[in-house]
Write a structure and sequence with these properties.
The protein is an alpha/beta fold. The chain has a single domain, classed as TIM Barrel (Alpha-Beta Barrel), CATH 3.20.20. 47% of the residues lie in helices and 15% in strands. It has 12 helices and 8 strands. An 8-stranded parallel beta barrel has the order 1-2-3-4-5-6-7-8, surrounded by 7 helices. α2 runs parallel beside α3. The longest helix has 20 residues. The mean pLDDT is 96.
Length: 260
């Protein structure tokens, strides 16, 4: 809501790394845990998860209460979907499978009020303090102009081919989707395949040259550090469901192994 610090914006403007995570779990406690651990953001996924609006709202509230900036990954760049996510108070939008400059521009256009974009206004939204910002609504508009981050996921060959146009669209972050990219390249699930890594490194280089922040999903702390060394400043470290499944799998193998 108004006055809430967008930790992603603060980090990126300060030349620092914004560090967070991504989850399909529809559980507000995830944001609370990340906050206690000192992370900057949580991407709340609605692309692959059957999350409804009230669930997203609960997760946004919990994250903000824990001083974590909530970002929402939507299913597409639909204007009204972006509108409701931002009106809940989310600090930014992640759009998957961006394959053209037009798609990236649609994200920017829907995320900002005029003159930068075409986001429609309602002074009674949660983002606007449930109407409490009406006394000086220009203050809220100024705040919103500085506290929304737009993130385009490039995860297909077609997206790679349109990268220059995407980078010129006005987005804040271009984020690599290596798993989908490897599938689209005909390599199967191979996020670490040399061809995928080479293509990803080129995206980072071209983004930096264009003045756009490159982002990645890092599967390990070591990988996160490697990408940061290459200039990546938006890093989503793993997913809590992945961490849970890996830990429980290792534990049960160790426990059963000890019995044998």
């Amino acid at each position: 809501m108004i006055g809430t610090t967008n930790k992603v914006v603060t980090a990126l403007k300060g030349g620092e790394v914004a560090l967070g995570s991504l989850t399909l779990l529809q559980e507000p406690a995830v944001g609370e845990i990340l906050g206690r651990c000192g992370y900057d953001f949580l991407i709340i996924d609605t692309e692959h998860a059957a999350a409804d609006e009230q669930t997203v709202l609960a997760m946004v509230r919990a994250a903000q209460a824990a001083s974590v900036t909530p970002l929402v990954r939507l299913r597409n760049a639909d204007h009204k979907q972006i509108l409701w996510a931002l009106d809940t108070g989310a600090g930014g939008i992640v759009i998957p499978t961006v394959e053209s400059g037009d798609a990236a521009r649609a994200l920017v256009e829907a995320s900002f009020y005029p003159p930068r974009g075409k986001r429609t206004v309602c002074s009674a939204t949660r983002a606007a303090g449930h109407g409490t910002a009406r006394g000086d609504f220009s203050e809220y508009l100024d705040w919103a102009a500085e506290n929304v981050v737009t993130i385009a996921l490039v995860e297909t060959v077609r997206g790679m081919e349109a990268l220059d146009d995407i980078l010129a669209s006005g987005i804040d972050v271009v984020m690599l989707g290596r798993a989908d990219l490897s599938l689209d390249m005909g390599l199967g699930y191979a996020p670490w395949h040399p061809d995928v890594m080479a293509a990803s490194e080129k995206v980072v280089e071209r983004a930096l040259a264009a003045g756009v922040v490159p982002g990645v999903l890092a599967y390990s702390p070591e990988e996160a550090r490697s990408w940061i060394a290459k200039g990546v400043r938006f890093v989503a470290y793993s997913q809590p469901e992945m961490i849970l499944s890996d830990t429980y799998r290792s534990a049960i193998e160790a426990i059963r192994g000890d019995r044998g």
